[in-house]
Design goal:
alpha/beta; Aspartate Aminotransferase, domain 1; Aspartate Aminotransferase, domain 2; 2 domains; four-stranded antiparallel β-sheet
Length: 352
């Protein structure tokens, strides 16, 4: 870092995204992208909008809000969009965390939470998951903190039942509870409807996973109208044109063609169940994932060894160095052909 960087960032450790290879063709199962292309309607709408990119996008995102409300049955005043859900998470840290309201989250969860806390100079309360990687709801009841819950969790894929999230919401009426539903469309239950019941609930979603628009960068949040106004004030102070014209159009197309996305999610779920059965037959231990990935370890091989041997065979998965999960790997669910190749390679590795 240069000598000009503000000292307030001295201890900042940036988030490390999954590897994006350029020098070799891999079966890419490391960043939880969809194996399917975006909806043809999303592509068509984005292409049609390309000639208009000399003009700013609609800062109110009127058409996109209407399309989302049509899918989820909510109101435009309760919805806001961002340049990816990571951007929205940062807004939440900026709006709802301060010296009196630290950020609370699990020790094993989406790694960006701790980075955003450091970036915004927010104190954290970090609660360890149980030995089986499930979240202990009692840790989050009656605490004076802004709570961040990934549901399903990443990288474990384990989903928290709606009734448990309600328990957290009801015992923290004076604090915002942020539920990050990046992976909810792969088998978990959304709490979107609860935003009408609890004024302290903010649900964050993304178009990156189930709607195949990771490269377009589009996220959203739904919540009480006053919470949305809070975030909008920050958004307008930073970048009122935070969603570009082509992404906005692609988002509308994806929502209007949501049946396409639901069918793709169903295939991914089928491929996940196939992968889990085959991996268990090879001796792997897996969590009960409700996401578009599996989280697995083998009792005879280290996570790093499995990761490196798969990489040698042309398959990328995600390995973490954290002490509690260093023997695990997170493996994105791809096409059935991808997963069959994965199982073939894992069979070879475990029989060596």
């Amino acid at each position: 870092m240069s000598r000009f960087l503000s000292s307030k960032y001295d201890s900042l450790v940036p988030y490390v995204p999954g590897e994006q290879p350029r020098d070799r063709k891999f079966i890419k199962l490391n960043t939880n992208e969809s194996p399917f292309p975006p909806s043809p309607l999303a592509v068509e709408y984005a292409q049609n909008e390309a000639p208009n990119c000399r003009l700013y996008s609609d800062p109110e995102l009127t058409e996109l809000k209407k399309a989302l409300c049509d899918v989820y049955g909510t109101k435009p005043e309760r919805v806001i969009f961002s340049n990816g859900s990571d951007d929205m998470l940062n807004y939440a840290f900026m709006c709802f965390c301060d010296e009196e309201h630290p950020a609370a989250f699990a020790d094993i969860t989406y790694g960006l939470y701790s980075v955003l806390a450091a970036l915004n100079r927010v104190r954290t309360l970090v609660f360890p998951l149980r030995e089986d990687f499930t979240l202990d709801v009692s840790d989050y009841t009656n605490i004076n903190a802004t709570i961040f819950i990934a549901n399903p969790n990443a990288p474990t894929g384990i989903a928290l039942p709606v009734i448990e999230i309600e328990r957290i919401l009801s015992t923290n009426p004076d604090n915002v509870v942020v539920v990050d539903e990046a992976y909810v469309d792969f088998g978990a239950a959304s709490v979107m409807k609860l935003t009408e019941k609890y004024e302290n609930l903010l649900v964050i979603g993304t178009f990156s996973k189930s709607r195949s628009l990771a490269g377009a960068r589009l996220g959203y949040a739904c919540g009480n109208e006053e919470l949305i106004k809070d975030i909008d004030a920050i958004r307008y102070s930073l970048n009122p044109y935070n969603v570009n014209r082509m992404t906005l159009a692609a988002g509308v197309g994806a929502l209007e063609d949501d049946e396409y996305n639901r069918k793709n999610c169903a295939v991914i779920i089928e491929n996940r169940e196939y992968t889990m059965r085959e991996m268990k037959a090879l001796g792997f231990e897996l969590t009960d994932s409700k996401a578009n990935f599996v989280f697995a370890r083998h009792p005879r091989f280290s996570g790093e060894y499995i990761y490196s041997r798969l990489r040698e065979k042309g398959i990328l998965v995600r390995h973490f160095s954290d002490e509690r999960i260093r023997d695990h790997n997170r493996i994105t669910i791809g096409t059935l052909e991808d997963m069959k190749e994965l199982i073939k390679s894992l069979k070879e590795i475990t029989e060596e």
